[in-house]
Amino acid sequence: MVYRAVQDPLGRTVAIKALKSSAATEENVTTRFEREAKSLAMLQHENIIHVYDFHRERGALFIVMEYVQGIDLYDLLEKCGRFPYDVAAIIAMQVARALDYVHYRSIVHRDIKPANVMLSRAGGVKVMDFGIARDTSFGDLTEAGTGIGTPAYMSPEQVLGDKLDARSDIFSLGVVLYQMVTGKKPFVEDERRSAMHKIRLEKHVGVRKLNPEIPRELERIIDKCLEKQPRDRWRSAQHVVMALERFLAKHVEMNHHARLVLFLRAQNVITELEAEEYLNPAALGSGGTLANPTNMQARHAVRGGMVAHAVTFGMLALMLGLIHVAPLGATPQGSKLVVREGRGFVRLHAYPWARIAVDGTPVGDTPLETPVELAEGPHVVTFTHDWFAPIERTIEVASAAIDSAPLVGVDFCNEGKPAGDKPRPPTSCGGKP
């Protein structure tokens, strides 16, 4: 049973996972429950649910963990059937990052499935439920020849009860990604054969046969995850991450969290107002992406710059208003701001932050409070971050109103390369070196 609660004296909302009393008498179950708490307590990654405490009282066991306000993939798939392929790839990449982190620490999850992947309302992805994970820090409670997991998402070796390694989780991730882009599981039992029989012996139907809009590159990534023999799959979750990063670099030109927020808004999981709040980095406060000490200094500098830019923009707006004030009696042109002919706007974002220059002219540091006004036509936008090589975007600005300005952004954690011999900050991008 999982409860939502408030932790005193901190006053923060948490989730409490309580072992049912009917199961608390079984030694194997209680041991797994306690091991789950200990395993999770040692894991600190942005794509893994955090554990705060483990509590035992009068024979009852409780895990106090991070409360994620959002929706799990199971419910989201029930709601919308299938996802746009770019959204599915973003989610799969975040899950692969979590798996790469735990595999490096000799943990195999063994139960990757939609119900164990949570999407936060702010666009984050969290892997949950390590209840049957195999952690080499502890002895394995699973007897040889015993299959453990959720049948439709098991790997062939998992079905046979063989000893598992990280490549089993990669197969399960492939099943989840397949289901996200097609709305169907690759191996479903019928009157003649069970799902586990098909997993072991039958080839899955290609995703493009079910959804021709899926790019071939993504189909190849999925097919490699779903190879029957572990040796034929991706060598590690890190290789899956890199393959998905290359794919997304060609298909998604905005912050990946922002893309997920837009998708959740389109599915009515969050409101328009919530989406606007999450998409505006300045509204994130101390829980935003600039939470480490190094970036806190950058945040203060950004805020100072925003104030200066706001004052300057206000003065310019006032002067332009006086110059271009409409004569008395003129017919109003509606509530939307009409751009002068030959001018347009663009919204510029960067994760975690960046100094922005357009055609070599600095325009400020992100988060930018307002869209940037530019002449109609092509422009080169340069995003610069202290720890990464600069990233350039060539954009085409069209004459349009400010409220329809397109969004252009970069994600240094996914696209960026270290600047020279500088390593990435240890607390940025999930702490990956």
Topology:
Elements: E1 2-7, E2 12-18, H1 27-41, E3 51-57, E4 60-66, E5 70-72, H2 73-80, H3 85-104, E6 107-108, E7 117-120, E8 125-127, E9 134-135, H4 156-159, H5 166-182, H6 195-201, H7 207-210, H8 216-225, H9 237-251, H10 256-266, H11 272-279, H12 293-323, E10 343-351, E11 355-358, E12 361-365, E13 372-375, E14 377-385, E15 388-397, E16 407-411, H13 412-415
Parallel strand pairs: 10-16
Antiparallel strand pairs: 1-2, 2-4, 3-4, 5-7, 6-9, 7-8, 10-13, 11-12, 11-14, 14-15
Short description:
The protein is α+β, with helices and mostly antiparallel strands and 433 residues long. It has 13 helices and 16 strands.
Describe this structure in words.
The chain is α+β, with helices and mostly antiparallel strands and 433 residues long. It is 36% helix and 20% strand. The strands form 5 sheets. It has a 4-stranded antiparallel β-sheet, covered by helices on one side. It has a 4-stranded antiparallel β-sheet with strand order 12-11-14-15. Strands 5-7-8 form a 3-stranded antiparallel β-sheet. It is globular, with a radius of gyration of 25 Å. About 11% of the residues have low confidence.
CATH topology of the largest domain: Transferase(Phosphotransferase), domain 1
Question: For the record, what CATH class of the largest domain applies?
Answer: Mainly Alpha
CATH level-four homologous superfamily name of the largest domain: Transferase(Phosphotransferase) domain 1
Q: Give the topology string: H per helix, E per strand.
A: EEHEEEHHEEEEHHHHHHHHHEEEEEEEH
Largest sheet: 4 strands, antiparallel
Distance between the termini: 37 Å
Rg on CA atoms, Å: 25 Å
